[in-house]
Amino acid sequence: MAQIIVKNVRKDFGDFTAVKESSFTVEDGEFFMLLGPSGCGKTTTLRMIAGLELPTSGEIFIDGEEVGQKPASKRDIAFVFQMFALYPHMNVRQNISYPLKSQGMPKAQIKEKVAEVARILGITDILNKPVGGLSGGDRQRIALGRAIVREPKAFMMDEPLGALDAEFREHMSEELRALHDRMGATTIYVTHDQLEAMQMGDKIVVMNHGVVEQFGVPQEIYDWPATMFVAEFIGSPSMNFLEYEGAVNVGDKIAILGDVSFTIPEQLTAASGDLALGVRPEHITLSNSGDYRGEITATEYLGTTQIITVECAHGVVKVRAPAAQPAQVGDKVGVAFNPKTITLFDRKTSRALVSVANKGVLNNG
Amino acid sequence: MSSFSVTEPSKRQKWFAGSLVILYALITIMPLIWIIATGFKSPSDAIAYPPKVFFEPSMEGYVNLFTSRTRLPAEELAALPPSETWYQELVRDNGMVITGPSRYGQRFLNSVIIGFGSTFLSIFLGTLAAYGFSRFKVPIKDDLLFFILSTRMMPPIAVAIPIFLMFRQIGLSDSHLGMILLYTAVNLSLSVWLLKGFIDEIPLEYEEAALIDGYTRFQAFYKVVLPQAATGIASTAIFCLIFAWNEYAFAVLLTSGNAQTAPPFIPTIIGAGGKDWPAVAAGATIFLIPVMIFTILLRKHLLSGITFGAVRK
Ligand SMILES: Nc1ncnc2c1ncn2[C@@H]1O[C@H](COP(=O)(O)OP(=O)(O)O)[C@@H](O)[C@H]1O
Ligand SMILES: [Mg+2]
User: Fold this and answer.
1) What is the pTM (predicted TM-score) of this model?
2) H or E segment at A271?
3) Which residues pair with B221 in a beta bridge?
4) Does CATH number 3.10.20.30 belong to domain A4-223?
5) What is the ipTM of this complex?
6) Closest-CA residue of chain A to B210
7) Which of A88, A113, A183, B240 is the most buried (most CB within 10 A)?
8) CA of A55 relative to ligand 1 center, distance in Å
9) A238-354 — its CATH code?
10) Is a pLDDT exceeding 70 seen at residue B312?
11) A39 lines ligand 1 (CB under 6 A)
12) B1 pLDDT band (50/70/90 cuts)?
């Protein structure tokens, strides 16, 4: 059980920088999600924390101790690999007991511990089987068993559900989260699936191109994205951007797009030039009246809700509306935004402009 | 599978393929059977024309292989006390007496020492080198690997003369150590390349898992990589052993007494007692046995290893 601090960590592979100066903190007992598109440096970051890769620069603290240049075997961390990496020449029991053997634990005690872990994971009946013929779910449980049996300081999981089929993923993710809640061990979990990250994580760090874009609790990241990348990557459909040229000053409470003005949270920074007004699909309402108008170009029925695509003067917006709301392709509608939820972005830097609404979130990221 | 399936061969196809394999097996095994049979023929049966397929078995070849004999005049032979063993009897029937054991046993032992010694060394060094090449950033790795391979680009015997001179200079001529080193040097490029291929196939994650589980790099290599490379090691070992075991040219050139292996010795049997083909055949038969046993022991690994990872699990 430990707090993990990653401080200005960087990793170069030759000329290529896989991770640029990244910092975030994982509190003791947190289920922490490392989220980002494929190739953004999640695995590299996780491997540096585990000690399988040494950072080019920067510091990593586990439980207050700087471990950046320590070998993996000295860090007391468990790692669940994407393809599980069960030792193929050992059976289930040997796989799970292997980390205990390295500690020189007496045989009787190992047996006891393995039995206990097997009971927790529900794999008691396959303990003596070879790992070769087992299903993905069982392999996953064995990999978890090998990780938890040792009671390490923290768990690293690299897309642990990636190798399972969709149906089983859901089940396994619940099982994983339940296991974590029961043991309360610090866990860093890598995924490229934003939904998984939102559902499972206590906290999320979003990475892109080797850069930490934002970190915080899921709700904050969803509501107040720090960058346009985060706004687009999280949420489905993603945040809408109305792109415009204009200027905002400190204290502004409206944004003017063309000849229409929108109420926005009070701004705390000034910016001008290429800007974007960001709003989530569920914070848009369509009506027959309203100054800002657009034309419906598509509707997508989702059961209880529907996604209505509306073409406006400053871009296409997707609106999440009740399924019952009448909407015809070709209809001209008025578009209104919930003013409390709007975030402005500077399109040159892709960063969110600070307002009274998001300053609390942006300042900790 | 239905009978129209594209992938499943029909009965006739299977039958045809099976017959072909059997025919091929028969052709390749014929010389072997002939050699084994000749070992149990009498010298006259062995050179009979037309060749004899059915014959009265005789142990003469084996007795001649393992003994030195000398011819005695009939009256001296008659004066001897009665023979104590069946093989003394057999030799006397041909007008000779046994004067002692032949050198075959010792030559055979040389083959075992040199063959298995060089195989062990080739595998030991080859595995370590292959692991290093496979897992670590080695400067000019590709050039080194090419260099290692290039030692196989000419027939090894092309360097026989320089090696002969070198060995004489440093006192390795006709020594076990010299032959072990020589065969190891020849086999090493093969073993490094083959084993690198096998080790490349083993996912890195297994070792990393072991490192995470608290093992050192060497323990991870020893306990996780080696068991999984067993298949590759076994097949590589068989190739190395077969080469060292059967090698003739270097052995003729570099060994004559102390360290002479069986291959150069076996033909010399012919000279010893006229055209003693059964003894030669007996020597060849016994010579085959160790490689056969070794191969059978490793067969389980060999079958999956010989495809070079193509159908690994
Ligand atoms: N050992 C390595 N050598 C060179 N490049 C690497 C190495 N490992 C990862 N990379 C590169 O670093 C980038 C980030 O990789 P990774 O951390 O695996 O991304 P993710 O897990 O987010 O998909 C990728 O572009 C990848 O090609
Ligand atoms: Mg990855």
Assistant:
1) 0.80
2) strand A271-279
3) none
4) no
5) 0.81
6) A99
7) B240
8) 13
9) 2.40.50.140
10) no
11) yes
12) very low
